[in-house]
């Protein structure tokens, strides 16, 4: 008797797709100013959870320091990562500037909150060397 297969909790299913896509994102405030306090980081996390939810994504992990934040996001394949990033940065910038205007103005000016650039890395699953070996070992038809 074979053991019952238990699905991996990170594997999700859509109508025509089975997926597990994770991205590690890093955002920095404009000019890498040290704008974040513990309170601002907590609120930023709340905002980013809501934005992810609206995309059908999940904010798996969030943390940061005074001058940057890290996110681990599990997102569906129908979502372009750049679109998710733009929304995460846009919504959080608007709300953090509005809710903490006096504090934010001391560090940032000109209507900007985030630097226009960001870091993104795919992560999760098997190491690339294992996947490469698996693909190399697949038999070609004929």
UniProtKB/TrEMBL annotation:
Which residues are listed as membrane-spanning? Answer: none
Q: Name one Pfam family in it.
A: Y1_Tnp
* Record SUPFAM superfamilies: Transposase IS200-like
Q: Which InterPro entries match?
A: Transposase_17, Transposase_17_sf
Q: Which domain of life is it from?
A: Bacteria
Q: Which SMART domains match?
A: Y1_Tnp
Q: What residues does the Transposase IS200-like domain cover?
A: 18-138
The record's listing under PANTHER family reads: TRANSPOSASE FOR INSERTION SEQUENCE ELEMENT IS200
Q: Which NCBIfam families match?
A: transpos_IS200
Protein's name according to its UniProt entry? IS200/IS605 family transposase
To which species is this protein native? Nonomuraea helvata
Lineage, opening ranks: Bacteria, Bacillati, Actinomycetota, Actinomycetes, Streptosporangiales
